[in-house]
Amino acid sequence: MLGVETSYISNAFGLEEEKLTPKFPVPNGRTRNVGFSFLGAGQVLGFCIGLVLGGVLIETVGWRVGYYICGGVHVIALALACWVLPEDRKREATSWQRLYYDIDWIGAVIASSCLGLLSYVLAIVTGSSSSIREPLNATLITVAAVLIPVFALWVGRQERLGKPALIPNSLWKIPAFTAVCLMVLLSWGVMNSMEYFVSLFYQEVQELSALQASLRFVPGLIVGFFLNVATGLLVHKFPANYLVIISTILCAGSPLLMALINPKWSYWYAAFWSMVLYPVSADVLFTVSSLIIVDVFPAKTHALAGAVFNTVAQFGTSLGIAIMAVVASNVTRESGDPDKESPAALMEGYRVTFWLGFAGMLLTGAVGIVGLRKAGKVGLKRE
After folding, report:
1. Most buried of 17, 203, 220, 375, CB within 10 angstroms?
2. Which of 354, 271, 362, 368 is CA-nearest to residue 320?
3. Do 164 and 102 touch, CB atoms closer than 8 A?
4. Residue whose C-alpha is closest to residue 324's, from 206, 207, 194, 204
5. Among candidate residues 125, 127, 120, 166, the one with its CA nearest the CA of residue 144
6. Contacts of 283 (CB under 8 A, 6+ apart)
């Protein structure tokens, strides 16, 4: 629990980096690449600390203390932001008239309503897959689905009339950006689902303690930290599509190993290698995507593109875990084991989610092959 929360805190600051790019004092080239990679490495380090600390807290003072710690971390992060972030460039003074005319309020309401309803229903379904049949939840998911094309039509109209649009449809006309958004949706969904269900595998199937389960993630987090740094140092030497596709194929080995695993096997036989491989795609994709955003968009659009990328990544997490939870629950309920809470019955459901994760990573690679085929090298130094 605490590890995921700490990771989200890090994501909130790390993925929003694109909003700083117009004023980011670091020049193009290797230095900026390394800067992006360290932001990604910070997410991994934050997750690692939170994961281990969460296991300690659960076995000592209890999980509730973790939320107090997260609240304190937010306060510290706010103080650091006020001190560290550079001053914004001077702009025209804000007025009520500008607030009214320069912001797409209707688009914001539609998008917020859609994401809010989807997030609520996905959270409910994650806890109990049968709840989707309840009239209220069915109605909410239907309304959310209708709001998606409504939003697309609205921002299209705004763009045609030259008025402010929350997320202009023209953003999606750039194949590389559309590809990295689809890839981060799938990759983040698989990665966070792996963390969730592998943790359940350790605790519910292998019956390990929370601390023992959290420690088994550490090898992958160490690999993820150094992989982020290495990506920043080398990303300008290789085409972006090669880096992303190779990392995706490697990452696909993680859910594949867990799908084939025997719970009685030693940790070092399969689970260890799965933990080493599971963060590879997301870590490489983070750095490459950040550099693609600053390369393909003008400076004034960096903040918007970065915000969209961040939103897609977070939504991918919610969507991936919800889908996997529904599948695991249904498979376990239909298992031949009379005790649906037994390790054997639970493992049947978890195994299917790992196969879905494997398929998801293959689909991520396919998107990269098509969408990034013309991306070339990113992060090159420009005068």
Report:
1. 220
2. 354
3. yes
4. 194
5. 120
6. 40, 44, 224, 227, 228, 231, 247
